[in-house]
Design brief:
By secondary structure, this protein is mainly alpha-helical. Helix content is about 65%, strand content about 10%. It has a three-stranded antiparallel β-sheet. Helix 2 (about 35-40) crosses helix 4 (about 60-75).
Length: about 140
């Protein structure tokens, strides 16, 4: 069963379902590892594909191209091709992409501030799971 939005949006039933679909599409895009990292890498200035690839070590060319295409499709990134040999392509955040930086920064600050608590929760959870697997009474 897929997770759905359960908050009160004040919308009608059909409108609420459409809203949930839109939220899911947005979260799918910004929650995708390389897309979010590409947005962060583009925050200061436009970058060429290979510059991005070097900055985002570990990403394959195919995955980076796919992420950039998705960001471009969503209006978050622009792609400028220059008629050179070989063609030069610059990627930059659009104004919509720039507007995403503030909530992303807030999320990153939250994560940083709460990292010790999350680490402790993971440790507690893992210990509990190990006790269950070992058959050790809790």
């Amino acid at each position: 069963m897929a997770a759905t939005h359960t908050g009160d949006t004040g919308l009608g039933e059909g409108e609420d379902a459409a809203y949930c679909r839109q939220v899911r599409l947005l979260l799918d895009r910004v929650g995708e590892k390389w897309s979010l990292l590409a947005v962060l890498a583009l925050r200061g200035q436009p970058r060429r594909f290979n510059q991005l690839r070097r900055e985002l070590s570990g990403v394959s060319p195919r995955m980076l191209a796919r992420s950039l295409r998705g960001l471009e499709r969503d209006g978050l990134v622009s792609r400028q091709v220059y008629p050179t040999v070989p063609p030069q392509v610059d990627y930059a955040l659009t104004s919509l992409g720039q507007s995403l930086l503030q909530p992303v920064d807030a999320l990153l600050q939250w994560a940083w501030a709460h990292q010790p608590q999350m680490d402790q929760a993971r440790s507690d959870f893992d210990a509990h799971q190990q006790q269950d697997a070992d058959g050790t009474p809790l």
